[in-house]
């Protein structure tokens, strides 16, 4: 097991700016997971280290999750594709249940995790899967795929989709660099080699 690079900050260790950010996190529609000592889990402890950028990052995340134009299913499918691509265990741990709760079939979720064929029944979700996969593997989206995304999601949805990929890729990479573990007692997330 790889050791995390930052010791989690407990609430009693925070400065004023960090406490203000923690208060904002506590007011989110979905509470941030905490460890037994009150420290934040996932990407949020790292955001506390740099609260000015953390506030901005959390704002982007909240806009995507709670005020975005993509459906819950489309957004969560995109996030799972990002998590699997980057082998981001915490991201997968946090979002696989949300994807299932949004109605994505278990077989589709498992196919994303294992690197199998991702062929959703819904045409819009198929466009999401194709565009996200292309963006993650090539760093771009070709003209036909972009046109299909705009036709299925609208211009706002297509642009938002690229933002989802960028935002969750940023979190995945940051958690990898900082060696952020899964919460205590969480089932391991295994991606194929």
From TrEMBL:
Organism name: Pseudonocardia xinjiangensis
Highest taxon above the source species: Bacteria
Name assigned to this protein: Carboxymuconolactone decarboxylase family protein
Pfam families linked: CMD
Residue ranges occupied by any Carboxymuconolactone decarboxylase-like domain in the UniProt entry: 56-132
